[in-house]
Amino acid sequence: MIDAPVSAAAAGRRFDVCAAELFGxxxxxxxxxxxxxxxxxxxxxxxxxxxxxxGDICRMEVVEPALSEIRAEDIPLDVLYEDxxxxxxxxxxxxxxxxxxxxxxxxxxxxxxxxxxxxxxxxSGLSGINGILRPGxxxxxxxxxxxxxxAAKTDRAHASLAAQLEAHSMARVYHAIAHGVIHQDFVSVNxxxxxxxxxxxxxxVTDKNSKPAVTHIHVLERFRRFCHVQVNLETGRTHQIRVxxxxxxxxxxxxxxxxxASHGVAGGQILHARRLxxxxxxxxxxxxxxxxxxxxxxxxxxxxxRQQ
Length: 308
Known about the structure:
By secondary structure, the protein is of the alpha+beta class. It has helices at 15-23, 27-35, 108-116, 155-166, 240-247, 295-306, and strands spanning 2-5, 39-41, 57-60, 79-82, 86-91, 146-152, 171-179, 186-190, 193-195, 203-205, 210-211, 214-222, 226-233, 271-279, 286-290.
């Protein structure tokens, strides 16, 4: 059993929504746990649409997933750190984080199952909190975004890391290249993000069915037509950086979903998760991991410098 108290910020939300955020799982996974009798409110079963209050306790009974439904694949990993509780990797551009329709193989999860499986000698596997398709996955980055990502091997590590995400204490720093020239050195965007009313496949800045989102932008270098920026996430909404940058009028280079076609680069948005910092779930040590900018990013920087 894992217990998590409801904070003032979460008060008034639905039970399934609150539990999903507290335990770092999807809302669908939370609903399945509620329906299966594995997720409780104040020690008792509760309907998924129950509104929670400050001080309520969400309790989750950990259910072991049937990992045989997804394959372990011998895919090389750039491992930055690993112990019996968690693993930190540098995800390459083009790799999907977890299996989903159209991407059941070749994902980071497939690679992690092989690397961390019982026979690998590196622990007993991955946390099962997030279900059979997302074992160990605490947070995600997009397929075409590269960089640092942590996965949990144990349920206690998963719960701790998810709580840090919910409390906004996990440091996540990205580098990106944006269209246009941002004249201020520092810009903060505090606008809620939800499903786009015009296109349900996209996210957007909207006041309808949205969640608070805060992004801090620091300009590192200006070019004639582009900017190299550092972006710090205070919250972690889906596509948050891409949506907020587009909202400011400075969409990311290469982002054809939230920006414009970029003929000089290929492969998607120029966005790299460069630094990740968190408290180790067991030792209590503050861990910080940082990677170099990948070759595709440096190539895009050269492209941006050449534009007149």
